[in-house]
């Protein structure tokens, strides 16, 4: 395996004084460039110390993500996580990503609702209760 070292790229030169940007020995700076497919907003979810509605029952947790757009003021279901079984401290592998073309603004509200799924055999959260 070979590791190649590159000098400052053209994008990085905009952030450095000219003498530093043209010096190939000074390669400690990294250029950051936004790609067209980079998400506008992305986050992961985890819960801590959830309480089961019934004592000694293991939780099967799911988080539903909804969006309230400022112009519409209506709740729109956006996505949901996978079900994490048997823990009070679930860490979800399914993150939430809003692509760059999605209309999200500073005033946009994101609602996260945590459910305890009682019947996993259905593709719905109707047989679930909020935690």
Automatic annotation (TrEMBL):
<dbReference type="GO" id="GO:0005737">
    <property type="term" value="C:cytoplasm"/>
</dbReference>
<dbReference type="InterPro" id="IPR035892">
    <property type="entry name" value="C2_domain_sf"/>
</dbReference>
<feature type="region of interest" description="Disordered">
    <location>
        <begin position="1"/>
        <end position="33"/>
    </location>
</feature>
<feature type="compositionally biased region" description="Basic and acidic residues">
    <location>
        <begin position="1"/>
        <end position="13"/>
    </location>
</feature>
<keyword id="KW-0443">Lipid metabolism</keyword>
<keyword id="KW-0378">Hydrolase</keyword>
<feature type="domain" description="C2">
    <location>
        <begin position="20"/>
        <end position="131"/>
    </location>
</feature>
<dbReference type="InterPro" id="IPR000008">
    <property type="entry name" value="C2_dom"/>
</dbReference>
<dbReference type="Pfam" id="PF00168">
    <property type="entry name" value="C2"/>
</dbReference>
<comment type="similarity">
    <text>Belongs to the inositol 3,4-bisphosphate 4-phosphatase family.</text>
</comment>
<dbReference type="InterPro" id="IPR039034">
    <property type="entry name" value="INPP4"/>
</dbReference>
<comment type="pathway">
    <text>Signal transduction; phosphatidylinositol signaling pathway.</text>
</comment>
<protein>
    <recommendedName>
        <fullName>phosphatidylinositol-3,4-bisphosphate 4-phosphatase</fullName>
        <ecNumber>3.1.3.66</ecNumber>
    </recommendedName>
</protein>
<dbReference type="GO" id="GO:0016316">
    <property type="term" value="F:phosphatidylinositol-3,4-bisphosphate 4-phosphatase activity"/>
</dbReference>
